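User: Run a structure prediction on this.
Assistant: Running it now.
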Amino acid sequence: MIFVARSPREAKVVTSLRREHWAAAVVADSLDFAPRADLPCIYGVGAAELAPLEEGDVVCLDPSGDIALLYKIGNPHNSLLATNRCNCLCVMCPQRPGDDPPGLLENNLKLLALMDAARTTALGITGGEPTLLGDDLVRLIEACRQKLPRARLTLLTNARRFKDLEFARAVVRAGYPQLFMEIPLFADNDTQHDAVMGARGSFYDTLEALHHLALLGQPVGLRTVLHAMTIGRLVPYAEFIYRNLPYVFQVAFMGMETIGLASDNLERLWVDPYDYRLELAAAVRYLARRLVPVSIYNHQLCILPAEVWPYARQSITTWKQAYPPVCEACRVRDRCGGVFGTGKRHSAYLRAVG
């Protein structure tokens, strides 16, 4: 456990902490404190950095003095980064693929063991591409199921490896009954989908995987990210899903987070969401009228037609969520998910709804 000292009284307590009971201490920058040689301490930490921390959070302390929040108790957006590696190279991926640090799986299992089972209602497993872990993904999901038996577990995966039916079966069995999968499908045809994924053959790999998961009774949601390469056929895309993939539990149309590879490719990908709002509304309307559950992620209410507001979700992870100054006077701000604070570009049509 880590002791956080925010007051002079708590700073004095640090001097008497027993090393066998405490892993380290963190002390606010406003306090007069002499570091202990036998207890790792980070001191001189700003009040704004300490303010969000509460009992039950899990942090990683770096010798440089950096504090990384790995798990926020009671937050629905906690996740485990399974791997940085990927078998695709999506043009708008917000996280660049790369090698994994040593011991990543073991660190995830340690982090999982520190999570509060009673207050963790949801957990994501993300990457990179988690299925590249193979049997270790089965192990990780089994550990999630044992530690967090009541939490909804969401696996973000391109699913290509689930064209192997036996591997798909092993993963589904490991996570039953609370495992959900969110899978990208970027077009209704192989040419466009494979171009977005940066991997030839990925369209048919994904379709084969989806049918395997349906055979196994695995709940699956589909996602597409909206940009210049995907917005041209939104209604045909919706029709393709309705006619060929009737078993999906949700279809999500997602706004692009303009970091990572999306930032590298921004000039050829960026389309202001306001400019495709009518096409988006038509695709949502097509699915909704056919009783296919549909959601809009990462879009602001002020740039959407009012008819699709009921489908817009507050989907941006809390630590990335931001509201520009123009949003301060908006009467629907509490219903709107805001913008990516990490993003490099937002709609030019953001406004306060009066």
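The chain has a mean pLDDT of 94.
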